[in-house]
Amino acid sequence: MGVVAPSEYALPTMSATAQNLEPPVCMYGEILENRQITPVTWVMKIHSPDAAPRMRAGQFVNLLTSEEIVPLLRRPMSIHRVVEHQGVASGFCVLYDVIGPGTRNLHHMKKGERISFIGPLGNAISVPAEARRAVLIAGGVGIGPIKFVAEALQAMGMRDITLCYGARDSDHSVPVKEAAPDGCRVLVCTDDGSVSRKGFVTDLVAEMIAGKRLQPGDYVFTCGPVPMFRAVRDLLGKHGISAEAATEEYMGCGFGVCFGCPLKQRQPDGSVEYKLCCVDGCLFPLETLVFEGDEDVDAQKGDDTGTPA
Questions:
Q1: What is the pLDDT of residues 103-122, one digit of tens each?
Q2: pTM for the complete prediction?
Q3: Has domain 133-295 been given CATH number 3.40.50.80?
């Protein structure tokens, strides 16, 4: 591995090995920018020429939001985009909503301050070679990784990319220029209709399917809350469309030591196993994820058919 600088510590990872990704490190970066883009949403740009070239679309970092004891745990954040200087990756951005003590600390940080992070963590997007079109589905702060994913798809030569984005209201709706790069088609809805049309992101997806602008074989990436995941999974499943989901769980370490971020995944034989969001993901095939309440639905189906659940 070579000599590791005092401010940089190499960490173990499982998913990096599977995709030949660079291992994560713990290091400090300099904050270049921390700007507000909606009443509740901020984008932080961090200078890190050592870590940025290792980052791939779909991965995340674990940020230390305070040098104090509280809050104790780092905050996992999707990589919003990688910043380049003269064609070389030199830093990265994270997008976050100010919700609790960790993110409140983040939004108070100023340009020039240093921030500790672990990354890059998790696996990267896996796009089928035959895919010629992509649909990206985001709900709420799940818009975080979308721009990096879209830029990576464009770098692969994909030109037909649509973003379906749903937000709560105007205060939580990220501007289009922040959500996706130029060249993407962007469809927006809000729960209350305060931005664009009123409705849910699944309404946009259903219209894409009805118009044959989303079909089996297209690449689909999605990120958002569990209710959205469940609705998107069930909608796509009816049409035989697969998707890659960027999941989110509370994490202690981010690299598989604390076992604090388990989720359930259905295996090919029908059994359900626990996986760790941080090292087995955070990207999983959406159709394999088992959410709270799914077991009750399966049991009800068994009762309705007269067969054991």
A1: 999 999 999 999 999 999 99
A2: 0.90
A3: yes
